[in-house]
Amino acid sequence: MFVRISGTDFNEVLSYIENKYKEFAPQGAFTYQFLDQQLDNNYRTEQQAKTIFGYFSILAIFIACLGLFGLASFASEQRMKEIGVRKALGASIEGLTILLSKDFTKYVLIANIIAWPTAYFVITNWLNNFAYHIDISIMFFVIAALASFLIAILTVSYHAIRTSLMNPVDSLRYE
Prior knowledge:
This protein is mainly α. It has a domain at 59-172. It has helices at 10-24, 35-78, 80-88, 93-127, 138-165, 168-172. Helix 2 (35-78) packs parallel to helix 5 (138-165) and helix 4 (93-127) packs antiparallel against helix 5. The longest helix has 44 residues, at 35-78. The radius of gyration is 30 Å and the shape is rod-shaped. The N and C termini lie far apart (87 Å).
């Protein structure tokens, strides 16, 4: 039985409801729950999962950025002589930064193409557990892709700019 209670004197109203309940079902035990507490209990696990996934997402992004940073460092060391020759021939810093960042943006694009169907499937199955849920918009995936591109560009750009600013004589000295 659902009863809407208005006012502030809950104890008096609850005792009245208990007396009426015992009139109709004297053998039954009178137990009650408040709807807002029940709804809070139902969604508490979702709030905890959101917090845990948030922390692990930040940790995963940080670890991925460290790996990308190391990979960019390795790639810039491998292409040091090429960059020195390009710079000696008049390449701009912006052009060299784009050249070094281009390879990593391809990998980010491939990762997004792989992740989108998987994420769509997982989110759709998770949302189907709720009575009321939203439809998944393509904008969520576009925003995630843009964020991943931005993070990758910021991570890689440090080494790309550092390598582009080096003196070409230093990289070509032993040739």
